[in-house]
Amino acid sequence: MSWSWRFETASGALVDPGEVGGAEFSAQGDAESWLGETWRDLSERGVGQVYLLEDGREVYGPMSLAAPE
Q1: How far apart are the first and last CA of the chain?
Q2: pTM for this one?
Q3: What are φ and ψ of residue 10, in 5° steps?
Q4: b/e per residue, 25-37, with b = 16+ CB within 10 A?
Q5: Rounded to an integer, what distance in angstroms lies between the CA atom of residue 61 and that of residue 69?
Q6: What percent of the chain lies above the pLDDT cut of 70?
Q7: For the CA atoms of 13, 62, 48, 38, what is the dihedral angle to 10 degrees?
Q8: Which of 11, 39, 53, 62 is spaced 20 to 30 A from 33 at the CA atom?
Q9: Alpha carbon distance 24, 56 (integer Å)
Q10: DSSP string over 21-65
Q11: CB atoms < 10 A from the CB of 45, how many?
């Protein structure tokens, strides 16, 4: 199994994973931990929301990366 994130702007336009340091993971928990550590940087690079994918299949999302007010 391969886990990855699909990155989008807040308006839903795709963001190239290579531009924001996207990666593939062997476990869901690893992918979620990585996002927890990098979401602020991703947000600063223009990512507004993400979807978690398992072998290309959408597991959940969109999940906003907007900072809580």
Answers
A1: 36
A2: 0.92
A3: -60, -25
A4: beeeeebeebbee
A5: 21
A6: 100
A7: -120
A8: 11
A9: 11
A10: T--EESSHHHHHHHHHHHHHHHHHTT--EEEEEETTEEEEEEEE-
A11: 14
The sign one gets for the Cα dihedral 69, 46, 10, 7 is negative
Query: φ, ψ for residue 49 (rounded to 5)?
Result: -155, 160
Kindly report, residue by residue over 12-34, the tens digit of the pLDDT. Answer: 999 999 999 989 999 999 999 99
Domain range summary for the chain, segments of one domain joined by +:
3-64
pLDDT of residue 67: 78
Distance of alpha carbon 24 from alpha carbon 5, whole angstroms? 8
